[in-house]
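Raw record, unedited: LamG-like jellyroll fold domain-containing protein
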Amino acid sequence: MLLQVLLLSTCFGYPGNFALQFIAKEGDILRVPHESSMNGPLIDSFTVELWLKVERNAQLESGRIVNLIGFPGRHPFLGLAADTGCAIVQLKTTNNTWYSYEGTTQLDDGQWHHVAATWDGTKQHPADRALALYVDGILEAAGGEDDDATEVPKTPDATGLTVVNKCETGLCEEGMQIGGLYCCSGGGYTGRYFNGTLDELRVWRVARTEAQLGEWRSLPLNSGDFPELLFYFPLDEAGMELGANVVESRALPWYAILGNAKGAGRPHWVVSHAPMSCRPGSRAPICRRIESSSVSLGGNSLNNEEDQTDISPAALLGWILVSALASALCASVLTYVHLTGTCPPALAAAAATIRGLANSAQGYVPAALGETASSSPHASPMPSNAAAAAADWRWAQPPRVSQPAFSSPMRTLPPAPSPATPKSYGGL
């Protein structure tokens, strides 16, 4: 199955573009353990974004909102309304309620969509603390029961609510969860599982602008160019996960775990059809590997992981096919020799042709069987084919003590030895 995924990845998008498929009825989930960087920088401002392809959910065990990226009991929380198929973002308030902003674009149409949610709670004036929800780069019109149906960012702090803006005891002690939701304080999994495929998960410390989201949503990132990027899971590690169930973040050196604590509920690797592409000169690692279609042999100094040249999947597949054909040919020749005791005719003819070409390059044309030695322009007349063969062998021997060295192999051959007084030439 993994080999099929690797081969198909060269046919869609860019080579090596993978995603994770979540099956709701199997309880698939991706868990990011708690790390202190998840606290303050995400509670007062954030951007969460991803590509997704939604399969319609069956009846949820509880509630109506499916988790995409979220934290138990706090924001950020980006989800999907199971009954409408629309995206929804929620903020936790100080009176222990949730402020929701639900979109109007139905995402469960079997197509790939980009979804992003931003919150900037760091502004001084409540009216400037904006919550926004985008689908495919466009700000969503609010369509929830309590929404105003306008296409403008929401300002909950300006309506008399107070959004939580700092971590307190017990609030920020859970990690980030993707595709499922494990409820607070060991309450167990809620059953609110996502049914579909996710790719290019990004979590930022700041609220990205609409222009920034539109420019970069279809481009792989080099995390070193974006200091505000906290977690980046491009999900291109199919077959390369650490420990077989761990996926690395390409920004903060952290990790995500496939499945739950019992080892079940692991999402499946699939080829991603999300409309991602590499712009010329991109510094993203996947784009640099594609641009470098062959391994550099020039002795350049080794750089860090992002600068190293790699073999593309297409080139690797070509080497595998060539090696397989060469192995099959060698096996066929050895089998023929073992069964018949002779070299295959085609191979023997090829060897004879090569020998003839080599001799011609040296200016020596040996007498062929069925010819007299006089047919060779470089040999003296010989009485028989046996004499010609003896002469050929003599030319291949080093000079003996009693035999003067020939001044040039291109000169006329000396007379063949008399049959009555044969001389020894090595093995004859």
